[in-house]
């Protein structure tokens, strides 16, 4: 119970006897602490929302059969980085399906029994055979670039503000040390001028100088713990995001990209011409 009053009295005494330089150092450290705590609280909230929203989105996406199902149902998962990536990729895919379509008609009906249950792309394999409107590989390249840009943008959004915490961790103690050294230097200069080297003369100046180091440590220690936790969490979210982007691109390619060989395209075109249709299939 006596620790808090003693600490408070010591801090007040040190600040009262601090030099102008020491007070400036403490004020700078307090401002840095204010910024770092603002980042800590806001980032904790952002990462908590991102975790919860991402889980709901991943569960919803795993239950879909078509990569565009969530976009067509207009479901929203605000705060989930994976959803932002998904919606940008889906919008780009829909744009190319409308403006640069590849119509593949006359395809045989899928035989569901031939698709093993539980295999990867089980649903998209059936969907790919049902789809008659697809996109070209060149259009898919544009979709892939959009996914990569979205993944990068979401990662940058998660890391935004972390520079403040890293600055507090790395710079806080050094700023405090600067104030301490400056204060001790001023104390010794004052002793030399007054020709008095008693403990009573030295104690106020040294105590005032040391308060800068204490303040620097109080700024850096919570920022260090928060920074390490947040970096680990952000790394985990971005790894999940990269994995989802790869899986999503693969499912889009499987379901919506016309990957037929040139020989197959020519064969389909000749078949439609022989059937008397005006416009051969691509």
Strand order of the largest sheet: 1-2
Show unreliable segments: 107-122, 278-282
The secondary-structure element order is HHHHEHEHHHH
Query: What can be said about the biggest beta sheet?
Result: 2 strands, antiparallel
Task: Provide the gyration radius in Å.
Answer: 32 Å
- How much helix is in the residues? over 70%
* Silhouette: rod-shaped
* Measured distance between first and last alpha carbons: 83 Å
Task: Write up this protein.
This protein is mostly helical and 282 residues long. It has one domain (21-274). The chain has 9 helices and 2 strands. Helix 2 runs antiparallel to helix 7 (162-194). The model is unreliable at 107-122 and 278-282 (pLDDT under 50).
Provide a brief overview of the structure:
The chain has 282 residues and is mainly α. The chain is built from nine helices and two strands, in the order ααααβαβαααα. A two-stranded antiparallel ribbon has the order 1-2.
Question: How are the secondary structure elements laid out?
Answer:
Blueprint: H1 3-16, H2 20-62, H3 69-73, H4 81-99, E1 101-103, H5 122-130, E2 133-135, H6 137-159, H7 162-194, H8 199-256, H9 262-274
Antiparallel strand pairs: 1-2
């Amino acid at each position: 119970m006596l620790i808090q009053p003693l600490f408070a009295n010591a801090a007040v005494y040190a600040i009262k006897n601090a030099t102008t330089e020491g007070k400036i150092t403490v004020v700078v450290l307090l401002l840095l602490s204010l910024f770092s705590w603002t980042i800590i609280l806001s980032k904790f909230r952002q990462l908590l929302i991102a975790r919860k929203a991402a889980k709901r989105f991943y569960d919803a996406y795993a239950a879909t059969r078509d990569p565009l199902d969530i976009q067509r149902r207009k479901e929203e998962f605000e705060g989930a980085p994976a959803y932002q990536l998904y919606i940008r990729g889906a919008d780009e895919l829909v744009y190319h399906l409308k403006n640069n379509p590849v119509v593949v008609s006359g395809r045989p009906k899928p035989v569901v029994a031939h698709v093993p249950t539980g295999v990867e792309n089980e649903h998209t394999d059936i969907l790919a055979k049902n789809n008659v409107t697809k996109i070209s590989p060149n259009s898919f390249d544009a979709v892939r670039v959009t996914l990569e840009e979205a993944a990068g943008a979401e990662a940058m959004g998660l890391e935004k503000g972390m520079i403040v915490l890293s600055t507090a961790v790395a710079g806080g103690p050094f700023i405090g040390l600067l104030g301490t050294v400056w204060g001790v230097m001023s104390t010794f200069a004052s002793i030399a001028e007054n020709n008095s080297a008693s403990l009573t003369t030295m104690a106020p100046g040294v105590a005032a100088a040391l308060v800068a180091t204490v303040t620097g440590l109080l700024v850096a220690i919570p920022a260090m713990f928060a920074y390490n936790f947040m970096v680990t969490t952000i790394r985990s979210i971005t790894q999940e995001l990269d994995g989802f982007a790869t899986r999503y691109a693969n499912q889009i390619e499987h379901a919506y990209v016309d990957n037929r060989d040139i020989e197959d395209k020519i064969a389909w075109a000749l078949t439609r011409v022989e059937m008397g249709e005006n416009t051969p299939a691509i």
